[in-house]
């Protein structure tokens, strides 16, 4: 017998550990777990990595938020305050020019229509000043002072020149050349100068705000670039850190475990670095390796014992074969002589001796016959399964027919009937399958209880087997004897009531199990005895049974003996 572990690498560690080795292994495992307990667990490593990423994300969001706020404030100052203020100053200047134009045209023409620009300009002036006063707090302080000075100068020009000139022309009803024209022109030029100063002040503030807006946009772009670069750097560093702290230790552990899985059970699995879970896993894998070594050593010892038992069994089988040979040749000849001479004594001296002598001779003849039958049955039992032939396709119908022919005389004497349909092809040997049917038929004829035996044989599909049913109307068998009847030499009745050696059903079971099936007593059947047994179904008939086998499931037909 081959060694089950011959392909495993030998190592001193493969030998079963003694008490000292076991204590040392436990101490090493405890030390390894103590070292592992001081390492960071994988959850902490991942938690720290996530915390770093979270802190960077918060810092990036704060920096980006501040940059966005600065950009929004500067944009709001340019778009919402300074640009509208510059537009209102321009409208104010236009409104003042319209007023001066209207007054001058009315004074030169005396026509009332020329006052329309003055009236419209006066309304526009008031609207522009109100709009500028609404945002004056957001303007530079000097711009607010200039706005006040413009308003006062405009009021002075209207009260000292524009309104008096309009009143004078209106009273005269014709153009009037007033000596105050030069004075009014000088006042209006001073007003335009103050409007220009206000406009220059607001334009300068707007230029500064636009520059601040551009700076804020540049800062925001820089923040975004810095966040992107920083995030990429952190992700890269975290990836490298996780690779060094987690992935590489896992790869090393996988390589160590793979070396053990390939058969090198003497290789100790250890891990110098890595998170706590990985080092604990390494300790567990090494513990499993040590247990495998222990189990392997036990298996080898059991294998050695098994090899010894196998050798003993082979020796016993050889002796049994030798015994079978002796029984079939050497013992049969003297036994036949004993039987023949005792039968000669019985025929020659029957009635010439006393009754006791005749009885003794009868006992000797009967014993010789039973010994001869017993040896023949034992020989047949020992030969089951020792054939070199492989099971082949065998017709169950042919085996049953041969068995019925062998028992034709007994069946005729007892008036037995056999009901069966066409039985299928099975994987078996024809002589042994014939012996199965013959033993079952013989039992049905023997234990009929004095009434004509009726045997029903059916077969159904129970893939990958054919399930045979063999029932009779005899005396039946109690459920408590369902296993005992298949034991060799076990009898349920006295020899005087029912003859036989008690080997038939034992040999039947051995034959069926040799073919790969099984046999049992159907204890639910109460009208006699019913034996069920299975035989392998040929692969050719599993999916599509041949035409001559399709009737195996049909209702049995009666056939006379």
Summarize the structure.
This protein is α+β, with helices and mostly antiparallel strands. 65% of the residues lie in helices and 8% in strands. The radius of gyration is 61 Å and the shape is rod-shaped.
Helix and strand sequence? HHHHHHHHEHHEEHEEHEEE
In the CATH hierarchy, the architecture of the largest domain is 2-Layer Sandwich
Query: What is the C-alpha radius of gyration, as a whole number of Å?
Result: 61 Å
Overall average pLDDT: 79
Query: How far apart are the first and last residues' alpha carbons, in Å?
Result: 52 Å
Number of strands: 8
Biggest β-sheet, characterized?
Answer: 6 strands, mixed
Query: Which structural class matches the secondary elements?
Result: alpha+beta
> What is the domain total for the residues?
4
């Amino acid at each position: 017998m081959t060694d089950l572990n011959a392909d495993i690498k030998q190592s001193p560690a493969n030998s079963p550990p003694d008490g000292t080795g076991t204590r040392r292994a436990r101490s090493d495992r405890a030390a390894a777990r103590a070292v592992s307990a001081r390492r960071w667990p994988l959850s902490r490593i991942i938690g720290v990595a996530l915390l770093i990423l979270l802190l960077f994300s918060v810092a990036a969001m704060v920096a980006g938020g501040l940059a966005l706020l600065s950009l929004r404030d500067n944009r709001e100052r340019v778009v919402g305050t300074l640009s509208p203020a510059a537009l209102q100053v321009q409208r104010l200047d236009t409104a003042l020019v319209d007023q001066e134009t209207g007054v001058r045209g009315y004074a030169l023409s005396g026509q009332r229509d020329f006052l329309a620009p003055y009236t419209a300009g006066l309304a526009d002036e008031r609207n522009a000043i109100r709009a500028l006063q609404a945002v004056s707090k957001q303007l530079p302080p000097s711009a607010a002072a200039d706005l006040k000075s413009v308003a006062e100068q405009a009021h002075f020009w209207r009260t000292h020149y524009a309104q008096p000139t309009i009143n004078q022309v209106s009273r005269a009803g014709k153009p009037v050349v007033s000596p105050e024209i030069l004075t009014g022109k000088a006042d209006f030029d001073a007003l335009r100068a103050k409007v220009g100063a206000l406009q220059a002040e607001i334009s300068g503030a707007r230029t500064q705000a636009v520059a601040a807006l551009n700076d804020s946009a540049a800062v925001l772009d820089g923040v975004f670039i810095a966040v992107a670069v920083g995030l990429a750097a952190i992700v890269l560093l975290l990836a490298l850190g996780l690779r060094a702290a987690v992935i590489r230790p896992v790869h090393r552990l996988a390589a160590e475990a793979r070396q053990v899985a390939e058969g090198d059970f003497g290789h100790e699995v250890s891990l110098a670095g890595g998170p706590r879970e990985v080092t604990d896993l390494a300790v567990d894998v090494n513990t499993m390796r040590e247990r495998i070594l222990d189990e392997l050593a036990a298996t080898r010892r059991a294998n050695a014992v098994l090899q010894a038992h196998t050798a003993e069994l082979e020796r016993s089988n050889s002796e049994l074969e030798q015994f079978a040979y002796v029984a079939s040749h050497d013992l049969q000849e003297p036994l036949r002589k004993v039987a023949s001479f005792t039968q000669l004594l019985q025929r020659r001296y029957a009635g010439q001796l006393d009754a006791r002598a005749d009885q003794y001779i009868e006992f000797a003849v009967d014993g010789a016959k039973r010994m001869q039958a017993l040896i023949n049955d034992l020989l047949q039992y020992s030969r089951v399964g020792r054939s070199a032939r492989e099971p082949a396709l065998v017709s169950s119908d042919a085996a049953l027919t041969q068995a019925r022919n062998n028992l034709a005389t007994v069946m005729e004497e007892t008036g037995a009937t056999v009901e069966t349909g066409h039985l299928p092809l099975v994987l078996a040997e024809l002589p042994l399958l014939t012996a199965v049917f013959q033993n079952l038929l013989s039992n049905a004829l023997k234990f009929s209880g004095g009434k004509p035996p009726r045997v029903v044989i059916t077969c159904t599909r129970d893939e990958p087997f054919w399930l045979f049913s063999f029932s009779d109307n005899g005396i039946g068998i109690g459920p408590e004897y369902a296993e005992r009847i298949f034991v060799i030499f076990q009898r349920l009745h006295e020899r005087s009531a029912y003859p036989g050696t008690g080997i038939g059903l034992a040999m039947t079971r051995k034959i069926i199990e040799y073919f790969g099936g099984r046999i049992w007593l159907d204890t639910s059947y109460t009208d006699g005895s019913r034996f069920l047994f299975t035989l392998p179904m040929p692969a050719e008939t599993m999916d599509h049974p041949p035409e001559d086998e399709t009737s195996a499931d049909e209702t049995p037909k009666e056939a006379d003996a």
